[in-house]
């Protein structure tokens, strides 16, 4: 094989060089057919004559003159493997310069000299998985850099958290705890609890596995935000006294239990020398549109962002502070915990500051003289900035405050909201969504693109009207058999044939997906043979559509004929409301009933539907009624109304009531 | 009959190509230091011919820019040898003879070297040494070495076609050539040549080092031409289309920091990148190779069949990434599919100071630098085979071969 390609290559090369060796003037003198040597001789003589006349070496000039007008690059040695490149090129081999020189040793590069195609791929955009891989590589490289070149013994992080027992404590404290558990440095977590140490808090923080100091604080958390902020400051000071007593060495940071931290923050504060500040993103929930409009105006006026942090000049020196402008919120903020309005931050939130714990020590540690002793403070300070005599000594962290490393957020339960105590539900909650059809993994195909063949992608079950029998769509032969049997038994095309899930955003697409699915179903379904004669050519499909997570299932009924598929004849119908109304009488039965009722719609006529429903559940009374006709208004959970049109075909989903 | 013979020769040639594709250089496992740490002193003696200054110093005086462009290795090698302990003043005991000519120091106003006069200059210098000393005629240059750091080295032309057409200068056919150009099976690289890195200003690079913990946040970095519009208006000749393919495929890719603009932070940016592209230009080699190694950026070498500097001592396969020219459009896939462990290993190897030293021509010279690697390469060729010494009266070189223009006196 190799031999043959080589020979092929050789032949190519030979023919090439034959063609090439009759080269340069061929367009001016195409009649010349003499062998190479003779031609070259003639050419040389010609050149010599010109040289004699003109006084320079003309033969060098000839190829140059030709090459400038066309291309003088050559592609003589093309092996078969490079032929695919060739078709990309504009071939102009006539003027190729012959390569083999008497003084060259006959060897040449495998690499072809000359013009090559520029390979441009069809789809130039980066592949998302590759982008992800690239970022993983970068991240890995940077982690390795940090491991190798950064401070060899990182300092401990001392985290101060004031907390108290309340509805959202578990929520906030768990979130913070998980962040702290990811910190790759030594860490001490000082949790100060208002109203004394409680079992709730202790059991929460014990799960972290971190080194924790759980301290009680002898005051109950007051009910107003103002008071709460003041008390929290005192609790933080209390924690700082603990740091001083225990002579903890590290970096003190303030993590309120509702704050959210980037992991970069913990790396960044390792660069701290004495006292630093980071930018805090303030997340303020606007209670109504009015407030948000006000805020927008406010932002437009001072080009503000809801950020608190240091700001620097061009040389990276601290020049001042950027604080959150809470003025637009004046009068609209919460006064009491649990109000429905927004919670606005203080001028300086504690979480925006970090400092070296040696600043707190009574002696030693070489602490600078611009720091105040915490004992000289009367215990009522606004922010850690009060500890500093000279504010210019504050080190701006996080690219001079340009990076927001912490988010500040205050969300508490509303006073009138109900939550299970300790987040334990006992007795178990009642079911309000059935487990069937709401699990996206099996039944949900909301994202199915219309271009793809649903027949191959659809893996949802075809549900017979009895729950035990599920026939997979993938097993198409069985499905057809089943439907055919169904038809022979005068219950043709009955049953739920598709189960879809939707989200709020895909609700509209779902309908298209179903259409595609049904068309495909019909195409693959030989109606003539599957439906014996005697069956109606009209039939309907029921498709069950459930919200991907929570919301009730909806049903769509499609009417079809042998050749076409009509649009849904009834639109989405909420099951949830139906459920609520028959909660009182054995919910399980009601659920089953609804399923079966729905399954019965696919029948060719109302009576057929009635029989099926009755045979499935003898306890039910089935009434066939003309759609749109007046009905009694009483609600009976054991009665099913089958709605038919003037032909006696089922017009829409049967209903309970 | 002749046709069959030719066919046979061709098959032999083709199979030799197939064999060449396998890496044939020695590989150093692990730290890759051992051969690079060799000390050439005591293992060879070099005699430096005393040539009239018109062959070297005068040329440099005319244009001091020669000291800073990427072909400057020939000048620094001369200076290095003059003060090197391997230099001997007694030609009788010399293992190697060095002819100090600055053949590429002839720059256009824009700083591009023009090698048109170089062949005549080399020829003139060899005529001089062969008539003044007996050593050239003894071997016809087989124990002489020449530094020819031009685009296509001893072919003395910057266009590849012309260079191939010219071939290695006939009178240098027996000499050992120290050159930047390296491509397997190329007429401009003969067996036994030593491939060296191009000259990159060592002090300048050293001064621009940034802290090693500066995070490498650029995935792929490249600065330079993609199209050479002046010399290749159609595109596809320059860099065999590889650079153009890089641009066309990845100009909008956020992972690729590529541009034609040469920023002032070029050296710093390379230290912030994971991969640095080193595609071929007109010639397969480029100073980016040196810069990438010095700055710890993994070189992505896009130049088919390239022979890299000191390939017998530096494990290029281990420290760099080789991408075939025809695969350039898949560059993102190729680079992202390298396992992170492999990348970290390449970076560790690149961090090896001996690797960086071997790429540079510092002033003054340091142990293990490129000068020493050249000497090591020369020392490894010793002792000379007996066959290089010619019988009295024997002539191998053809002094009248080559283009007529080269035969004119310099």
TrEMBL record, chain A:
The chain crosses the membrane at residues 41-66. Keywords: Cell wall biogenesis/degradation, Glycoprotein, Golgi apparatus, Membrane, Protease inhibitor, Serine protease inhibitor, Signal-anchor, Transferase, Transmembrane, Transmembrane helix. InterPro entries: Glyco_trans_43 (IPR005027), Nucleotide-diphossugar_trans (IPR029044), Prot_inh_pot1 (IPR000864), Prot_inh_pot1_sf (IPR036354). The keyword Glycosyltransferase does not apply. Residues 438-459, 573-595 are annotated as: Disordered. Pfam families: Glyco_transf_43 (PF03360), potato_inhibit (PF00280). It is a single-pass type II membrane protein. Its EC number is 2.4.-.-. Involved in the synthesis of glucuronoxylan hemicellulose in secondary cell walls. Belongs to the protease inhibitor I13 (potato type I serine protease inhibitor) family. Belongs to the glycosyltransferase 43 family. This is Glycosyltransferases. It comes from Hibiscus sabdariffa. The lineage of its organism: Eukaryota, Viridiplantae, Streptophyta, Embryophyta, Tracheophyta.
UniProtKB/TrEMBL annotation, chain B:
It is found in: Golgi apparatus membrane. The keyword RNA-binding does not apply. Residues 1-19 form the signal peptide. Residues 43-338 form the Exostosin GT47 domain. It comes from the Eukaryota. It is a single-pass type II membrane protein. It holds the Pfam family Exostosin_GT47. Keywords: Glycosyltransferase, Golgi apparatus, Signal, Signal-anchor, Transferase, Transmembrane. Belongs to the glycosyltransferase 47 family. This is Exostosin GT47 domain-containing protein.
């Amino acid at each position: 094989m190799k031999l043959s390609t080589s020979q092929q290559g050789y032949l190519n090369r030979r023919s090439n060089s034959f063609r090439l060796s009759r080269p340069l003037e061929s367009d001016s003198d195409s009649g010349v057919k003499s062998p190479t040597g003779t031609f070259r001789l003639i050419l040389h003589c010609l050149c010599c004559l010109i040289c004699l006349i003109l006084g320079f070496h003309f033969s060098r000039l000839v190829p140059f003159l030709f090459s400038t007008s066309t291309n003088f690059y050559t592609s003589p040695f093309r092996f078969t493997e490079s032929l695919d490149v060739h078709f990309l090129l504009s071939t102009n081999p006539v003027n190729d310069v012959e390569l083999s020189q008497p003084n060259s040793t006959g060897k040449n590069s495998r690499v072809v000299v000359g013009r090559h195609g520029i390979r441009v791929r069809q789809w130039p955009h980066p592949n998302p998985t590759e982008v992800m891989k690239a970022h993983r590589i970068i991240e890995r490289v940077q982690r390795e850099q940090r491991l190798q070149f950064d401070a060899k013994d990182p300092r401990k992080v001392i985290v101060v958290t004031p907390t108290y027992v309340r509805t959202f404590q578990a929520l906030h404290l768990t979130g913070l705890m998980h962040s702290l558990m990811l910190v790759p440095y030594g860490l001490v977590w000082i949790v100060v609890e208002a109203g004394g140490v409680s079992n709730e808090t202790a059991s929460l923080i014990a799960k972290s596995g971190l080194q924790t100091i759980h301290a009680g604080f002898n005051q109950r958390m007051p009910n107003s935000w103002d008071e709460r902020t003041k008390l929290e400051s005192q609790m933080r000071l209390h924690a700082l006294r603990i740091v001083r007593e225990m002579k903890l060495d590290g970096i003190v940071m303030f993590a309120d239990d509702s704050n959210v931290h980037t992991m970069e923050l913990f790396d960044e504060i390792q660069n701290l020398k004495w006292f630093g500040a980071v930018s805090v993103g303030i997340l303020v929930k606007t209670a109504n549109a009015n407030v948000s409009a006000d805020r927008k105006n406010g932002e437009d006026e001072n080009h503000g962002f809801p950020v608190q942090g240091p700001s620097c000049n061009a040389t990276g020196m601290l020049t001042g502070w950027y604080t959150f402008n809470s003025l637009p919120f004046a009068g609209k903020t919460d006064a009491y915990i649990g109000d429905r309005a927004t919670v606005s931050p203080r001028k300086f939130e504690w979480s925006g500051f970090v400092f070296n714990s040696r600043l707190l020590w009574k002696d030693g540690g070489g602490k600078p003289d611009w720091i105040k002793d915490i004992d000289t403070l009367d215990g009522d300070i606004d922010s850690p900035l009060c500890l500093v005599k000279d504010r210019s000594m504050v080190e701006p962290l996080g690219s001079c405050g340009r990076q927001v490393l912490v988010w500040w957020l205050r969300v508490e339960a509303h006073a009138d909201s109900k939550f299970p105590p300790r987040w334990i539900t006992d007795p178990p909650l009642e079911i309000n969504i059935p487990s069937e059809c709401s699990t996206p993994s099996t039944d949900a195909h909301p994202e199915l693109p219309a271009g793809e063949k649903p027949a191959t992608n659809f893996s949802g079950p075809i549900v017979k009207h009895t729950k035990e029998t599920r026939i997979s769509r993938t097993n198409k032969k069985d499905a057809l058999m089943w439907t055919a049997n169904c038809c022979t038994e005068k219950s043709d095309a009955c049953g739920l044939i598709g189960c879809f899930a939707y989200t709020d955003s895909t609700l509209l697409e779902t309908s298209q997906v179903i259409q595609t699915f049904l068309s495909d179903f019909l195409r693959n379904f030989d109606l003539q043979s599957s439906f014996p004669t005697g069956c109606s050519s009209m039939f309907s499909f029921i498709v069950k559509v459930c919200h991907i997570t929570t919301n009730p299932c909806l049903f769509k009924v499609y009417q079809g004929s042998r050749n076409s598929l009509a649009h849904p004849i009834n639109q989405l119908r909420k099951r949830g409301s139906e459920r609520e109304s028959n909660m009182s009488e054995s919910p399980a039965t009601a659920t089953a009933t609804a399923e079966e009722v729905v399954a019965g719609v696919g029948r060719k006529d109302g009576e057929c539907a009635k029989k099926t429903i009755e045979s499935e559940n003898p306890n039910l009374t089935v009434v066939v009624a003309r759609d749109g006709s007046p009905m009694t208004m009483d609600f009976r959970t054991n009665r099913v109304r089958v709605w038919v049109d003037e032909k006696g075909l089922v017009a829409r989903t049967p209903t309970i009531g | 009959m002749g046709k069959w013979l030719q066919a046979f020769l061709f098959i032999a040639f083709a199979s030799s190509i197939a064999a060449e594709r396998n890496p044939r250089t020695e590989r150093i496992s692990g730290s890759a230091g051992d051969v690079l740490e060799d000390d050439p002193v005591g293992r060879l003696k070099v005699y430096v011919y005393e040539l009239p200054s018109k062959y070297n110093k005068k040329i440099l005086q005319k244009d001091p820019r020669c000291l800073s462009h990427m072909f400057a290795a020939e000048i620094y090698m001369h200076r290095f040898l003059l003060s090197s302990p391997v230099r001997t003043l007694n030609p009788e005991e010399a293992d190697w003879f060095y002819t100090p000519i600055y053949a590429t120091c002839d720059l256009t106003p824009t700083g591009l070297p023009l090698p048109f006069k170089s062949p005549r200059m080399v020829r003139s210098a060899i005529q001089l040494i062969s008539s003044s000393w007996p050593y050239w005629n003894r071997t016809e240059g087989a124990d002489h070495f020449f530094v020819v750091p031009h685009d296509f080295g001893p072919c003395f032309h910057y266009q590849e076609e012309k260079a191939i057409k010219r071939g290695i200068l006939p009178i240098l056919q027996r000499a050992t050539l120290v050159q930047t150009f390296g491509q397997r099976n190329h007429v401009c690289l003969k067996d036994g040549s030593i491939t060296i890195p191009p000259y990159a200003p060592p002090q300048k690079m050293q001064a621009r080092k940034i802290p090693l913990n500066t995070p490498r946040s650029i995935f792929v970095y490249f600065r330079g031409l993609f199209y050479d519009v002046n010399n290749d208006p159609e595109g596809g000749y320059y860099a065999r289309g590889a650079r153009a393919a890089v641009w066309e495929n990845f100009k909008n890719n956020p992972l690729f920091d590529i541009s034609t603009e040469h920023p002032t932070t070029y050296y710093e940016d390379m230290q912030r990148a994971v991969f640095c592209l080193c595609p071929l230009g007109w010639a397969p080699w480029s100073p980016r190779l040196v810069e990438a190694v010095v700055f710890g950026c993994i070189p992505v070498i896009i130049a088919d069949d390239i022979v890299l500097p000191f390939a017998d001592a530096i494990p290029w396969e281990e420290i760099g990434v080789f991408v075939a020219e025809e695969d350039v459009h898949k560059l993102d896939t190729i680079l992202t599919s390298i396992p992170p462990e492999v990348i970290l290993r390449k970076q560790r190897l690149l961090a090896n100071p001996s690797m960086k030293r071997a790429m540079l021509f510092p002033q003054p010279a340091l142990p293990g630098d490129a000068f020493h690697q050249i000497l090591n390469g020369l020392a490894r060729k010793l002792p000379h085979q007996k066959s290089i010494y010619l019988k009295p009266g024997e002539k191998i070189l053809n002094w009248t071969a080559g283009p007529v223009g080269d035969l004119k006196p310099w």
